[in-house]
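Hello,

Following up on my earlier ticket. Below are the two sequence lines again, exactly as submitted.
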Amino acid sequence: MSEEEEIKYKPISIMELLTQMHSTTTLMIDLAYSAVLFNDKDLAEEVSELEKKVENLKTTLLMNTAIAIKDAVDAESMIGIMEVGGAADTISHAAADIADIVSIGLGIDQNILKAFAKTQERLTRVIIQAESILAGKALSELKLETNIGVSVIAIRRGKELVLNPNERLLKGDTAIARGSDVGVVELDKLAKGELKEIPRPKIGNGCVLN
Amino acid sequence: MCSKLSQEQVVDMIVQLKDFSEMMVDLAYSSLIYNNEEIADQVNDMEEIVDKLYTKLELTVLRSREMQPAEVLLSSIRLAVAAEQIADAAYKLATIVKKGAKSHPILKLAMEKADETIVATTISANSILADKNLGELGLEDDIGMKIIAVKRHGTWTYNPKDSFTLAPNDLIIARGYSEGRERLLNAASPKLCDD
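Thanks for your patience. The regenerated structure is below:
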C-alpha cells in the first residue's frame, strides 16, 4: 500500500481541473470495462491508480473553489462545480469497483462478456502487424477518432502500458480501443494490414452552392 | 423459474444497466452545459428505470444462486452496483440543473477543452443531414460523432435509432472529438461557397 498523499494546495485553474477530471473518469469507465472484457489485470491496476489521481484532483478542486468564494453569490455559482467534482469522484470509484472484479479474480459469466462484445458502441483489442499501415504512424496524425470513429484508449508495448496515447504505434503493439460497431471492424482490418488506406470522412467537407 | 431464462435475463439487464448509465452521464453533462431542464428531467426518469432494473437484477441473481458459482454471481451484482452508482452520479449532476443553479461558464469551457466533448446544433434547411436516417448517415463511423438526443417540435428523442430520420430545424446533441465536431457543425449548417 502506498502512503496517502498529503493534502496540499496546487495552483491550477478550476477549468483545467474539471477538464482533467472529466477526461480521466471517461477513460476509467472504458478501461474498467476493457479490463473485464479482456480479463486484463494490468488494465484493472491502472484504473486503481487513476482512482487515486481523481481523488487528488477532487481535493484540489474543492480547495480552489474554496479560495474563489468570497460571498453568497460566488457560493451559489460555484456549487455546481463542486457537485461536478463529487459526481466525477463517484464515477471514478464505480469504475474502480468494476476493475476490482478483475483484480480479485471473481470471474465473469461468459454470456455477459459475449453480450458486451456486441453492444453498439464497443471495446476492442488489436495487435499491430508489420504489414499494417498503422505501424510507425503517430495516433495524433492518424486521427482515427474522426476518420473511423475509433478512439485508442491504451497501448500495450511489451510490459509497458500507455494510457490516452498520442504517440507512434509500433509493430507488435496491442491497441485497446473504443468505437462504433463498423469502426472497430475497420480498425481490425487496418491492424492486420487487410485495409491499406484509412477511410476519410465524407460528411462535413467543403461548402454548398447557393 | 427456468434457469436458462433467468441467466439470459441477468445478461440482458446488465447490458441495459451499462448502456443506460453511460447514456445518463452524457445527458447529464449536456443538461448542465446547456442549462436544460428537459434533459435533466429525462435523466431523472432514467434513474427511476435504473433503480427498478437494479432491484430486479439482484433478485434474479439471488434466485439463480444454485446455477452458478457464487463468485460469478457476485461479479454480476458488482457490475450492476457500479452501473447503478454511475447512474446515480448522473442523477446528481442533473439535479443541479433542476434546482436552478445556473451553470457556471467555466463548466462549458472545461468540457469544450476535453478531447471528447458534447456539442449542440440545429439542422438547417440546406443541410446534407436533413431527410436522411441515422443508419444511412453513419455519423459515428464516418466522423466519430454519436447523436445522443434530438429535439423536434418541442419533443425530445433520446438515443435515436438507426431508422431515425433527421429533419430541418431539429436540434441535435452529439458526443465526439474535436475535428468530428467541426465537421458535424459544418454539415448541419453548411458554409456557402464563394463564387
